[in-house]
Design brief:
Number of helices: 9
Distance between the termini: 27 Å
Helix content: 25-40%
CATH class: Alpha Beta
Oligomer: single chain
CATH topology: Rossmann fold
Largest sheet: 7 strands, mixed
CATH superfamily: P-loop containing nucleotide triphosphate hydrolases
Strand content: 15-25%
Strand order of the largest sheet: 1-9-8-7-2-6-3
Shape: globular
Structural class: alpha/beta
């Protein structure tokens, strides 16, 4: 069978799930089945086998990247004659709404924190860097919540700069999924971790480059490695609708929930409402902003309808 031209020039090496699983080598499994269950998000199908076959090989790969980055950092120090504070290794996790970013980020955090040298591994989500609802409403952006323009990018960039510079502690705002808003005067403190995982919809997003060549930092400039979680549009929509139906009978029932008004919908009404939100907001954001960043990632995890990773693509060096 003749190889396609686009395959020969692809910047990625692509592995089937079975091929990728063999790359675990002798990486030990440090999580119990009960811990894996606790790490799983709503409607995710993460199980013990998924961690063994997908995330343990990734943990092994990341250990190689971290060690290589540390050696390069020390070599640069010798070259410059400096003694800088050791910089943390930052991992970005990107992908659509409902694709399972939170689960992947938590699993990676749990596995990396149990490496033999027991590194300090922190996790932040970019939800906290959304503008408060009051600002979004004033600017007419509530229908574009999650789009790049709905984030306080400068605050996020300052946070990542502080982390990379070893300033202690760096503070990230807290977001409440119950109130659907940033929580005033609450912070997550990140105090010189060896590894930081940053999870969010648009963390691989870039902007328009200035014609004068002025340096414009992007969030992804701070990443040492990035993971993109991928799935087909129809699959993502089905997962989003299923999650909405579950939340309707659980979290939405809380009177404090921003979405409490949806708790009384019938099944038919809930499906129609969720489908409308998906088509009007999340699908547009996916096609305009998130999916175009997929090829900027170091690793792509492609999920099938079962929620399980079926294919892995690793960027060539």
């Amino acid at each position: 069978m003749e190889q396609r031209v686009e395959d020969t020039i692809s910047p990625y090496r692509t592995f089937s799930r079975a091929e990728w699983a063999t790359l675990r080598d002798d990486t030990p499994m440090t999580l119990t089945s009960e811990e894996v269950t606790r790490l799983r998000s709503l409607h995710d199908r993460l199980d013990f086998k998924e961690v063994e076959e997908v995330y343990l090989p990734l943990s092994r790969l990341l250990s190689l990247y971290v060690n290589a980055t540390q050696r390069l950092f020390r070599a640069q120090e010798r070259f410059l004659g400096t003694e800088d504070i050791k910089m943390p290794f930052i991992i970005g996790v990107a992908g659509s709404v409902a694709v399972g970013k939170s689960t992947t980020a938590r699993v990676l955090q749990a596995l990396l924190a149990r490496w033999p040298n027991v590194p300090k591994v922190d996790l932040v989500t970019t939800d906290g860097f959304l503008y408060p609802n009051a600002i979004l409403e004033r600017e007419g952006l509530m229908e574009k919540k999650g789009f790049p323009e709905s984030y306080d990018l400068q605050t996020l960039l300052r946070f990542l700069t502080d982390v990379k510079a070893g300033r202690r502690p760096a503070r990230a705002p807290v977001y409440s999924h119950l109130t659907y808003d940033v929580t005033p005067n609450q912070w997550v403190e990140v105090d010189r971790p060896e590894i930081l995982i940053v999870e969010g919809l648009n963390v691989l997003q870039t902007g328009r480059l200035p014609k004068d060549g002025k340096a414009i930092p992007f969030v992804s400039d701070f990443f040492d490695f990035s993971v993109y979680l991928d799935a087909d549009d129809d699959v993502l929509k089905a997962w989003y609708v299923d999650r909405f139906l579950t939340l309707r009978s659980t979290a939405f029932r809380d009177p404090k929930s921003y979405f409490h008004r949806y708790s009384q919908l019938t099944d038919e009404q809930a499906i129609e409402t969720a489908s409308s939100i998906w088509e009007r907001i999340n699908l547009v954001n996916l096609h305009e902003n998130i999916l175009p960043t997929r090829q900027r990632s170091d690793l792509i995890l492609k999920k099938g309808e079962s929620h399980l990773v079926e294919q892995v693509s690793l960027r060539r060096l």
